[in-house]
Amino acid sequence: MSAPVRRTGGRSAAVLSAIRYAVEELVRERGAEKVTIPMVAERAGVNPTSIYRRWGDAPALLNDIATYRLDPQRELPKTGELRADLAAWAGEIVEHYRKPLNAAILRGGSAMAGEQETDCLRNRRAEALQIVERYGPQAPLSADDVIDGLVAPIIYRAIFLPWTLGEDLPGRLVDRLLPQ
Amino acid sequence: MSAPVRRTGGRSAAVLSAIRYAVEELVRERGAEKVTIPMVAERAGVNPTSIYRRWGDAPALLNDIATYRLDPQRELPKTGELRADLAAWAGEIVEHYRKPLNAAILRGGSAMAGEQETDCLRNRRAEALQIVERYGPQAPLSADDVIDGLVAPIIYRAIFLPWTLGEDLPGRLVDRLLPQ
């Protein structure tokens, strides 16, 4: 009756790392929209079946890789203050998408989005909820507010205006979200 | 010394309409990322040179078509109240992207974004500025606030979560942007 645990060490981690490396190389070489699962499997030296089993299709794989440095098991910022937690968390996301490769993979993922919520978005929403809930029922924000007011503008800029992803962006967005 | 005026009637409008129709058909048939300018020219029965001259490349063409119903020369909502103007304006954008074809073209455009600001984004920013400036120096918002707090969440949802583009979204976003 125990919940399934995603293995993250040993052979599993080595395979994952080979797949990630292969995806990054292929996106750089051909552009995200041309990357297929058989191509990744060949480059990574793994069986395509195991990629299909874990991700289902290329969009899901790309979306996952696009955010893997934002490991869902990482520690979230925890300062004891909602404003500072959100700013630090948003800072990690901005930092991630300031890397041109991560933004390119995001754009490739966008082209194929729209059918269902991706793991990446689900993870960000779960994180937003986790941060907001620390501050109990008196928290002035819902997870949706955080997605609309913090994640959406960062992702919008990462896709369309990557040169505007400044270090001051998280602070400005949080100030707008939580007026003093 | 007069400013250049974009012709919008007569033969020019007929050509434009043929190009738009061709783009929409081709996106439906093949997906936005496969559409090329020669393909559009052939389908529309126009010379590829005139498409290249006006748009430069396929991403620019797609981005323009993706928002053509949001004609930059249309009248913007003007109710005499900032909150209502913004909600009506955001409502037009939501309405536009609730159409699956428009959202699909947006996704195709995203995949190719990131090099420079598109006409589409420039137009939305100009509109945001125009609305905000009506309310003079005491307006509690900048155009950037409107882009981050209103346009970004709509576009983010149109790309990744199109089923969440509800009719109540503009009102909720404007309430968050302009607390009462």
TrEMBL record, chains A, B:
Pfam families: TetR_C_11, TetR_N
Protein name as annotated: TetR/AcrR family transcriptional regulator
Record keywords: DNA-binding, Transcription, Transcription regulation
Cited InterPro entries: Homeodomain-like_sf, HTH-type_TetR-like_transc_reg, HTH_TetR, Tet_transcr_reg_TetR-rel_C_sf, TetR_C
Organism: Dactylosporangium darangshiense
Residue ranges the UniProt entry marks as DNA-binding: 36-55
Domain of life: Bacteria
Domain HTH tetR-type, residue spans: 13-73
